[in-house]
Automatic annotation (TrEMBL):
Biased composition range(s): Acidic residues: 269-303
SUPFAM superfamilies in UniProt: P-loop containing nucleoside triphosphate hydrolases (SSF52540), vWA-like (SSF53300)
Biased composition (Low complexity): 337-349
Domain VWFA residue range list: 422-601
Region described as Disordered: spans on this chain: 262-303, 331-370
Protein encoded by which gene: bchD
Name of this chain's protein: Magnesium chelatase subunit D
Pfam families attached to this UniProt entry: AAA_lid_2, VWA_2
Length: 614
């Protein structure tokens, strides 16, 4: 039997991806599946076609949409058959229909955590359990999963509850079209490997080395080691080996551990290791009457446990993606990259009440202005009771209807909708700022406006100078209008700080009344000198500003105060504390730091708003 065309030292990402497809087809149930990060294109189509060619002809390959319902995914009550037969009739779900094959999850980065958890549970158990709608059935669903990841941002990933159960985390973004014509493993070889898989044995020392390498690479989940064992057995079967060899284990370490590594192991020797130049102990004198044991010709090629583990680590480290490897060398925490299932946008709060948005749940209850009657689920709830209700109608001497629906059968759909985030910029255009940093503040705000536009946030612009604050731009998504209003902002005059805070409160209140999540960003040095009534005087102006800041804090709006002075100003710090805002000094007009701080504030505001509405 010939060796596979690709191995741990595969020359291109496509070679590794093609090998992963072959291994997955050898043991789809044990390997569980692959997460394939790639937009729709020739590389992804070629990989899926290759996987289809490797699978048995009778193996199903079903595509699952992102927003599939639980009844279609797992199965449930067959409404038409139940009403016709007068007893509960079960309907098979997509996972049961795909038993013995592969399910393909389209746009897996948008998959809800609940749906991902249900699929993960089926992967763990190998069956679907139905304990509702009067059904208590268990159906076999031994499947593999291919999660198509089309996320554009680094933190747009499929839910971790799903990806940690899949052996392969592939990235086809860097695959060029010329690579697709390279030779791959023939389907006949994959079929032969599938037939001999059960007879492959696994030496204990290689299994220990694999698990130790996983720990050394900082992989927290034990599932990675279990998946690597399955991949190594499939690699041995594909290569025609009767037992897993070092090369098979190295292939598994490369494909499974490489994309999951979170640390780079130190090359320093451990404390309990003997020094490398320690002389070997003297040989014991041989007994002339004892026959000498024959030497194994392969002893020189056998690695001790530590060398075997080091080889696994080296192979996995060579397979770490370049971008991830750079982050590891800089000491950055990369484990958070797989924790998020959403995009990089600072999404607004989740509104659980309403008749629009994404369906979140179907619950028993009567329809309300904020819910919709789900007719199909209502009929599903009523169907199992029809024989009993017909008997009751006969005893009461009344004519039974075709389908008798009672109040207890009502099922209503609840919706979840993300509110829009509105970032309100309050810019100090007074003389104290105009003489120092107004031009730099304008440049920083322009960059923040562009970032808000990318996140599809609404923006509003308030400027304060002279005796009052002015709303230059009501909440809008027009980046051109926002930049035009900011460019025409004059500088000079007094600092009506209290008026600015009051105006910001009014705009934020209007946004909240519209269902939006407001975030306030103040750019000022905090040196107010105009009171609320327009009269000059620093003591009264500061007192009014603190009173307005305290009122803003009571309203619960998320806010940030960016100090535009050259040095930290005590009054600006005090003002931020009184309004419950984050304080950020802007010594060099670092728009990147400002952008990250604003996004973090928006995310916290959305979470707090969601808890309050929930």
């Amino acid at each position: 039997m010939s060796e596979p065309d690709a191995g741990p030292g595969a020359s291109s990402p496509w070679a590794s991806a093609a090998l992963a497809a072959a291994l997955l087809a050898v043991d789809p149930v044990g390997i569980r599946g692959a997460s394939v990060r790639s937009l729709a294109g020739p590389a992804r189509d070629r990989w899926l076609g290759l996987l289809r060619d490797y699978l048995p002809e009778d193996a199903p390959m079903r595509r699952i949409p992102t927003h599939i319902t639980d009844s279609r995914l797992l199965g449930g009550l067959d409404l038409a058959s139940t009403l016709r037969m007068g007893k509960p009739i079960a309907e098979r779900g997509v996972l049961v229909e795909a038993d013995g094959g592969i399910v393909v999850l389209a746009m897996a980065e948008r998959l809800s955590a609940g749906t991902a958890g249900r699929i993960g549970g089926v992967l763990d158990r190998g069956e679907v359990q139905l304990e509702r709608d009067g059904l208590g059935l268990r159906s076999t669903a031994r499947i593999g999963v291919v999660a198509l990841d089309e996320g554009l941002a680094d933190d747009e990933r499929p839910p971790t509850v799903l990806t940690e159960r899949l052996a392969f985390l592939l990235n086809l973004d860097n695959v060029v079209e010329s690579d697709l014509s390279a030779s791959v493993i023939p389907p006949s070889q994959v079929a032969e490997a599938r037939a001999r898989l059960d007879s492959v044995t696994f030496p204990d020392d290689i299994m220990v080395a694999l698990c130790s390498a996983s720990v050394a690479l900082g992989i927290a989940s034990v599932r990675a080691s279990l998946l690597a064992v399955k991949v190594a057995r499939a690699a041995a079967a594909l290569a025609g080996h009767e037992a897993v060899t070092q090369e098979d284990a190295a292939t598994a370490a490369s494909l499974v551990f490489g994309p999951r590594a979170t640390v780079i192991p130190s090359g320093e020797p451990q404390e309990d290791e003997p020094p490398p130049d320690e002389p070997p102990p003297p040989e014991e004198p041989s007994d002339p009457d004892q026959p000498e044991e024959p030497q194994d010709e392969d002893d020189s090629d056998t690695l001790d446990p530590q060398e075997l583990e080091d080889m696994m680590i080296a192979v996995a480290q060579a397979a770490i993606p370049d971008k991830l490897l750079a982050q590891l060398r800089e000491g950055k925490d990369v484990r958070s990259r797989a924790q998020s299932s959403g995009g990089s946008r600072a999404a607004g709060a989740a509104k659980k009440k309403g008749r629009r948005g994404r369906p979140s749940a179907v619950r028993a209850g009567e329809p309300t202005p904020n819910t919709r009657l789900n007719l199909i689920e209502t009929l599903r709830a009523a169907a199992p009771w029809q024989p009993l209700r017909r008997q009751e109608a006969a005893k009461e001497g009344r004519t039974a209807t075709l389908v008798e629906v009672r109040r207890s059968d009502f099922r209503c759909t609840h919706f979840k909708q993300r509110s829009e985030t509105t970032t309100i910029f309050i810019v100090d255009a007074s003389g104290s700022s105009a003489l120092q940093r107004l031009a730099e503040a304008k440049g920083a705000v322009e960059l923040l406006l562009a970032d808000c536009y990318v996140r599809r946030d609404n923006v509003a612009l308030i400027a304060f100078r002279g005796k009052a604050a002015e709303v230059l731009l009501p909440p809008t998504r027009s980046l051109v209008r926002a930049k035009r209003s900011l460019a025409g902002l004059p500088g000079g005059g007094g600092t009506p700080l209290a008026s600015a805070i009051d105006t910001a409160w009014m705009v934020a209140t209007g946004c909240r009344d519209k269902g939006q999540t407001p975030v306030l960003v103040f750019l000022t040095d905090g040196q107010g000198n105009i009171a609320r009534d327009g009269t000059p005087g620093r003591p009264m102006a500061e007192a009014d500003a603190i009173a307005s800041a305290q009122a803003l804090r009571v309203s619960g709006f998320s806010a940030m105060l960016i100090d535009t002075a050259r040095r930290p100003q005590p009054m600006a710090q005090k003002l931020a504390a009184e309004m419950g805002a984050k304080y950020l000094l802007l010594p060099y007009a670092d728009a990147n730091a400002m952008s990250k701080a604003v996004k973090a504030t928006a995310a916290e505001s959305a979470a707090a708003e969601g808890r309050m509405r929930g």
